[in-house]
């Protein structure tokens, strides 16, 4: 029996001059549904018009994480029945991500626990991004036959060196220190101080409140691996990257190659193309436009429903990718991810004028 849904999947509140927005699906790791996107957007509109609200604070219910992503089970069901509803969900979700990045009031995201996929989209584009020693931040989409979205390619393409390419292709999870290094977060605090921090955010400016509770996160791992990561992931193709990883000699490089080879070959090649292109875009909106095209393309292919089946539904961790090998993915297959979808583009970059 499926867990009962909470009556209100998004809770709204206040503490002092801060508005509180809490994702409230703890049994589903606060995964985002289409109605939740609308509720969040409506709340941001309302608070923008209230002078008493000086900041917005976003948290997740329960103690496991802010948000594990979008409701990927629903996306799979849609893919299996013709893919009619997911484009509308992504359209509203990506527009919300862009709005968060340009929200004129301080938008404070408490990225405690699991923050993946769509959870990154509602947090890592905010003006004040806070991680804790429990944070687990990742863009694991290639493992389910999808590409990094919600502005993930924009963030990943701007990480130091080739760290973003490594994170995108492998889905490696970042702790607090690595999230700070790669530009997914700004500050670290101890998770035990979060309740006090929320109170302080209602009394002080975000800068003052965060400064008072700032903590030094435990050392990350990515900085120590920059040499082999930068050397291997600079290759022009996924095949080239894998070959360099296998030849490098560092044990972690070989592990990364094995991880990549377990991901969707089609998603890997599309992801690399999107990442390389994202380096040259001038705005988050342009990256979101490209991700929308890619997500719609993935919806029509077999790897997305198969990847979700293997990782989320049956949990056998044995996806049967089609094609099964990198060599089976040609330039025309990748080009599908860059083309305008049948329902039209998202058009966020054009809307900027």
Automatic annotation (TrEMBL):
GO terms for cellular component: cytosol. Signal peptide: none annotated. Keywords: Hydrolase. GO terms for biological process: L-valine catabolic process. Its EC number is 3.1.2.4. It catalyses: 3-hydroxy-2-methylpropanoyl-CoA + H2O = 3-hydroxy-2-methylpropanoate + CoA + H(+). InterPro entries: ClpP/crotonase-like_dom_sf, ECH_dom, HIBYL-CoA-H. It is an enzyme of class 3 (hydrolase). It comes from the Bacteria. Residues 19-338 form the Enoyl-CoA hydratase/isomerase domain. GO terms for molecular function: 3-hydroxyisobutyryl-CoA hydrolase activity. The keyword Aminoacyl-tRNA synthetase does not apply. The keyword Hydrolase applies. This is 3-hydroxyisobutyryl-CoA hydrolase. The lineage of its organism: Bacteria, Bacillati, Actinomycetota, Actinomycetes, Kitasatosporales.
């Amino acid at each position: 029996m499926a867990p009962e849904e909470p009556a209100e999947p998004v809770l709204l509140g206040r503490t002092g001059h801060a508005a509180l927005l809490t994702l409230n699906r703890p049994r589903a790791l606060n995964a985002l549904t289409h109605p939740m996107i609308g509720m969040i957007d409506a709340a941001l509109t309302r608070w923008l018009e209230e002078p008493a609200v000086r900041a917005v604070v976003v948290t997740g219910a329960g103690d496991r994480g802010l948000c594990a992503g979008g409701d990927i089970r629903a996306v799979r069901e849609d893919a299996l029945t013709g893919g009619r509803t997911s484009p509308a969900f992504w359209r509203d979700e990506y527009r919300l991500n862009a709005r968060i990045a340009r929200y004129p009031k301080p938008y404070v995201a408490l990225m405690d626990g699991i923050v993946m996929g769509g959870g990154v989209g509602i947090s890592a584009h905010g003006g004040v991004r806070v991680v804790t020693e429990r944070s687990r931040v990742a863009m694991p989409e290639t493992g389910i036959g999808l590409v990094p979205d919600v502005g993930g390619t924009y963030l990943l393409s701007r990480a130091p060196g080739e760290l973003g390419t490594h994170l995108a292709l492998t889905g490696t999870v970042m702790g607090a220190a690595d999230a700070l290094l790669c530009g997914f977060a700004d500050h670290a605090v101890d998770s035990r101080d979060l309740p006090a921090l929320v109170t302080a955010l209602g009394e002080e400016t975000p800068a003052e409140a965060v400064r008072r509770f700032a903590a030094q996160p435990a050392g990350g791992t990515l900085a120590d691996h920059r040499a082999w990561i930068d050397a291997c992931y600079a290759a022009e193709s996924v095949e080239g990257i894998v070959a360099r990883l296998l030849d490098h000699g560092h044990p972690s490089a070989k592990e990364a190659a094995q991880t990549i080879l377990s991901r969707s070959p089609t998603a890997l090649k599309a992801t690399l193309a999107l990442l390389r292109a994202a380096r040259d875009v001038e705005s988050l909106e342009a990256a979101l436009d490209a991700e929308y095209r890619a997500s719609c393309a993935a919806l029509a292919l077999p790897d997305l429903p198969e990847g979700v089946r293997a990782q989320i539904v049956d949990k056998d961790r044995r996806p049967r990718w089609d094609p099964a090998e990198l060599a089976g993915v040609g330039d025309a297959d990748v080009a599908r991810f860059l083309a305008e979808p049948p329902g039209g583009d998202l058009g966020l970059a054009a809307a900027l004028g």
